[in-house]
Each structure stands twice: as structure tokens, then as C-alpha cells.
């Protein structure tokens, strides 16, 4: 009986020792091993290579800094093309027309003599420039002047240079205008044909205007049949312009021209129709 009890006791102690040993073994196992033992299907193999990185071109760009943005703006501004000028440095004009005379000139010259001009302007900007013009005008003598000159016929003309500041302005997209004023140099000349005036005789008003008379008498030399006077004076006027699709402008101009030398004057009022470009 005592032997049977001893066997049972020994068996019980053996089982207790086995249980305690198993519990101690379980506590000493690493957590990673337990996790691997519990879910082996979800464990990523240690040897698996990392996922491929996206190409550099596909990666999102880093936002530029404020300094980089300012540099880009300055560079784009410096590279920006300059705005084209709305005027030309040089412009040219030609025109034809007729002359309306005034003053003493009107007394001896009939209206409507032909008139031609050509000019060039140096423009400082769209609205201001300096214009040089050359004029040539026919000054046909009246019949009353030919009678005073005792001539059967005559030729009479005016050549002129003017240098004027010119102010341009726009009225609409196609219509504009300008004004000008400045000094001028004038040469008036002519010749009498079949003249029967007596040299040394009294100098009438026509010969005074024609070429001046020394000592109030017609020159004895007979040179009075030719006239050649150089005069200085002024001119002013203005015009209206109309732009065409080609860029050429049609203009109509009216001027006052006055020249003076000694006691004689030359006054013409040319009306001109022309083009400028």
C-alpha cells in the first residue's frame, strides 16, 4: 500500500515538473519567434528586395523658392522683346498744289500758280520732329503788271527752303493732323520778254517789287529785265493726314510764307496735296 502511494506521488511530481518547464520555455522564447509562429503566412521574407523607386522625371517637382521665382521673373523681363516704336525716325513727303498770293505779291501775281514741294523730317518721337522742305512755285504775272513792265510776256518763280519744328497728333486711328512753324530762305527770280521800258526812267511800283530800283530809277545797264532777290522770312501752317492700309499717309496742307529783302516782300499761301511715308 505504501509502495503504491509512493508511485502516485512520484508520477504527480513528474507531471508538475514537466508543466513548469514548459511554461518557463514559453516565457523565454523571443516575441518575433512567437509572431512568426502564430502568423507565418503574413511574414515578408527578409530577402525580398525593396520596391523600385519611381523615375526622377515622375517624382513631384520641388516648389521653387521665392528667390528663384524673382530670378525667373527678372530673366523673362530682360528677354522680353522691346515694344515696337509707333513712329519712324525719318519720314518723307512730296506734294503738289497751287499758290494763293497776298500782300504786294498779290498786286502783281495772279492766283493759282502751280506749286511743288518735297521734304524730309527727323522725328524725335511720335508727336515731335524737325522738318526740312523745299518749295518751287510759279508766280505768273498779271496783265496789269506786264503793262507796268512794258513787256510782252514774263516768267516769275519762287524757290524756298524752310526748316520747321512739326507737332503731330492723332484724331482717330486713321485721321491725324500737324502744325509747323519756323524760318525760311526764299529766292524770287524772273525774266521779262520784249520789254520796251527806257533805262534811267522813273521806277514805277512794279519795278520796285520786281527787283528794287536804285535812286528811284530803272537801271541804265538794262539788267532790270531780270529779277533775282534773296529774302529771309518765316512760315507757318498745318495739315490733315489720312492713313492708308499700306501705311502711306495722304495729307492736305496750307501754309503762310513771308519773305522780305530791303523794301520788297514776297507773300504766298500754298495749298498742297501730297503723300508722306
Describe the structure.
The structure is a single chain. This protein is an alpha+beta fold and 277 residues long. It has a domain of 187 residues: Porin. Helix content is 25%, strand content 42%. The protein contains six helices and eight strands; from the N terminus they run H-H-H-E-H-E-E-H-E-E-H-E-E-E. An eight-stranded antiparallel beta barrel has the order 1-2-3-4-5-6-7-8. Strand 4 and strand 5 form a beta hairpin. The longest helix has 27 residues. The relative contact order is 0.13.
Q: What radius of gyration results from the CA coordinates? A: 54 Å
How far apart the termini lie comes to: 144 Å
Give the overall average pLDDT: 82
CATH top level assignment of the domain at 90-276 = Mainly Beta
Question: Could you list some keywords that capture this structure?
Answer:
Porin, disordered N terminus, alpha+beta, 42% strand, 8-stranded antiparallel beta barrel, 6 helices, 277 residues, single chain
Could you outline the blueprint of secondary structure elements for this entry?
Elements: H1 2-28, H2 31-38, H3 66-79, E1 90-101, H4 103-108, E2 113-123, E3 128-138, H5 143-149, E4 153-170, E5 175-193, H6 205-211, E6 226-243, E7 249-261, E8 264-276
Antiparallel strand pairs: 1-2, 1-8, 2-3, 3-4, 4-5, 5-6, 6-7, 7-8
Amino acid at each position: 500500500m505504501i509502495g503504491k502511494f509512493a508511485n502516485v506521488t512520484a508520477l504527480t511530481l513528474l507531471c508538475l515538473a514537466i508543466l513548469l518547464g514548459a511554461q518557463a520555455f514559453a516565457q523565454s522564447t523571443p516575441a518575433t519567434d512567437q509572431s512568426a509562429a502564430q502568423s507565418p503566412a503574413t511574414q515578408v521574407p527578409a530577402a525580398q528586395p525593396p520596391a523600385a523607386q519611381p523615375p526622377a522625371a515622375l517624382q513631384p517637382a520641388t516648389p521653387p523658392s521665392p528667390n528663384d521665382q524673382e530670378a525667373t521673373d527678372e530673366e523673362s523681363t530682360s528677354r522680353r522683346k522691346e515694344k515696337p516704336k509707333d513712329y519712324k525716325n525719318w519720314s518723307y513727303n512730296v506734294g503738289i498744289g497751287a499758290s494763293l498770293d497776298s500782300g504786294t505779291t498779290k498786286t502783281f501775281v495772279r492766283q493759282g500758280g502751280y506749286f511743288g514741294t518735297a521734304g524730309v523730317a527727323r522725328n524725335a518721337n511720335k508727336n515731335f520732329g524737325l522738318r526740312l522742305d523745299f518749295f518751287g512755285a510759279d508766280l505768273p504775272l498779271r496783265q496789269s503788271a506786264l503793262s507796268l513792265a512794258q513787256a510782252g510776256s514774263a516768267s516769275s518763280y519762287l524757290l524756298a527752303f524752310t526748316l520747321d519744328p512739326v507737332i503731330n497728333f492723332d484724331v482717330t486711328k486713321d485721321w491725324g493732323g500737324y502744325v509747323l512753324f519756323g524760318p525760311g530762305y526764299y529766292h524770287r527770280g524772273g525774266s521779262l520778254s520784249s520789254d520796251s521800258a527806257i533805262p534811267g526812267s522813273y521806277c514805277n511800283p512794279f519795278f520796285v517789287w520786281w527787283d528794287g530800283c536804285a535812286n528811284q530809277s530803272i537801271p541804265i545797264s538794262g539788267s532790270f529785265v531780270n529779277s533775282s532777290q534773296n529774302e529771309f522770312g518765316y512760315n507757318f501752317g498745318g495739315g490733315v493726314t489720312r492713313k492708308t492700309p499700306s501705311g502711306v499717309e495722304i495729307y492736305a496742307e496750307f501754309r503762310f510764307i513771308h519773305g522780305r529783302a530791303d523794301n520788297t516782300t514776297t507773300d504766298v499761301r500754298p495749298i498742297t496735296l501730297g503723300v508722306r511715308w
